[in-house]
Amino acid sequence: xxxxxxxxxxxxxxxxxxxxxxxxxxxxxxxxxxxxxxxxxxxxxxxxxxxxxxxxxxxxxxxxxxxxxxxxxxxxxxxxxxxxxxxxxxxxxxxxxxxxxxxxxxxxxxxxxxxxxxxxxxxxxxxxxxxxxxxxxxxxxxxxxxxxxxxxxxxxxxxxxxxxxxxxxxxxxxxxxxxxxxxxxxxxxxxxxxxxxxxxxxxxxxxxxxxxxxxxxxxxxxxxxxxxxxxxxxxxxxxxxxxxxxxxx
Length: 249
Known about the structure:
The protein is α+β, with helices and mostly antiparallel strands.
């Protein structure tokens, strides 16, 4: 029996944080998604502010994962994620800004990874470092599949796919029977979640989601999302870059 066709709609917004604006630095977040028939891959990455080429590390891992994983399946997805990250790391080893052409200089491209693979009503999050993912059903904000951030010993310490022990930091979380997905970088998680990361901040999360549900014009939706993330109060609370990727399936 052929697979049923799934309606898929995605959009994303990346916004440079106030701190990067003040220091005349680029936005180091990146987001992308890719569909193939009824498969969907979405990935968001946050380039480390301390890494001179963090934005390059973020872009390369997002595009590599999207390009490769969209041809994956549920049986091989975990293995394919590992292989795709290895390929992204190889690209950085041979990147023109990697002067030594060795793994030791991958620290200059440090970036987190949070993404999902979705196919036929089932999916899985894959995650290294901070940022977060949410899988849920439209209008139901009590039953959520959440891939929460993972930080180190110190509050400002997290994990990156460019680390030598990145495999030990790679986490997977499956989900099923949902119709909405959202990924976000660390610059947004403080607005979306309560401190324990088990519940959402409804006053922030619900209006955004409900607007995206209603606004079918992608350019309008992205512009409104960027305006929300660029609100002066939001920038004062968290001056980091801010990225959200949303999908309706």
